[in-house]
């Protein structure tokens, strides 16, 4: 495989949209779905047959903000370290394809923060 079908969605609370997320993945035959504003906690999980769920919470561990990636289990991939600050919550994976690897990152940046250029540079 030398291509990926990737989608992105701001869910504003994953719990209430679980069925729609699963339907979106299957209807569009996605290999990965990047989610922002998941409102997940450390106890949150999502089970979709043949997929893996990775997520990053807000550093306060409260149900707000956050990001996640849902990826096909059979893809050669691994999770990268989480990036978890008040200004950024990012979930990243590295996917190995036939001829190259690619990093996918789902990011949530709360609108209430004025993020400086230095913080963007630190993140990237």
Overall geometry comes to globular
Q: What does the largest sheet look like? A: 4 strands, mixed
Spatial strand arrangement across the major sheet: 1-2-4-3
Radius of gyration, Cα only, in angstroms? Answer: 14 Å
Q: Roughly how many Å apart are the termini?
A: 27 Å
Architecture overview:
The protein is globular. The mean pLDDT is 91. By secondary structure, it is mainly beta. The strands form 2 sheets. A 4-stranded mixed beta sheet has the order 1-2-4-3, with no helix packed on it. Strands 5, 6, 7 and 8 form a 4-stranded antiparallel beta sheet that branches. It contains 2 helices and 8 strands. The longest helix has 10 residues.
Q: Quick gist of this model?
A:
The chain has helices at residues 18-27, 117-123, and strands at residues 6-10, 32-36, 51-56, 67-72, 76-79, 83-84, 89-96, 101-108.
Task: Describe this protein with a few key phrases.
124 residues; mainly beta; four-stranded mixed sheet; four-stranded antiparallel sheet; 2 helices; 8 strands
How are the secondary structure elements laid out?
Elements: E1 6-10, H1 18-27, E2 32-36, E3 51-56, E4 67-72, E5 76-79, E6 83-84, E7 89-96, E8 101-108, H2 117-123
Parallel strand pairs: 1-2
Antiparallel strand pairs: 2-4, 3-4, 5-7, 6-7, 7-8
């Amino acid at each position: 495989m030398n291509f990926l079908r990737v989608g992105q969605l701001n869910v504003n609370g994953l719990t209430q949209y679980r069925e729609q997320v699963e339907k979106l993945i299957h209807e569009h035959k996605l290999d990965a779905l990047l989610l922002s504003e998941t409102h997940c906690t450390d106890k949150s999980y999502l089970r979709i047959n043949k997929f893996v769920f990775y997520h990053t919470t807000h550093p306060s561990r409260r149900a707000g903000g956050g990001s996640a990636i849902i990826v096909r289990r059979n893809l050669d991939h691994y999770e990268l370290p989480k990036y978890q600050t008040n200004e950024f919550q990012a979930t990243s994976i590295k996917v190995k394809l036939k001829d190259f690897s690619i990093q996918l990152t789902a990011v949530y940046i709360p609108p209430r923060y004025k993020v400086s250029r230095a913080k963007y540079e630190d993140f990237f």
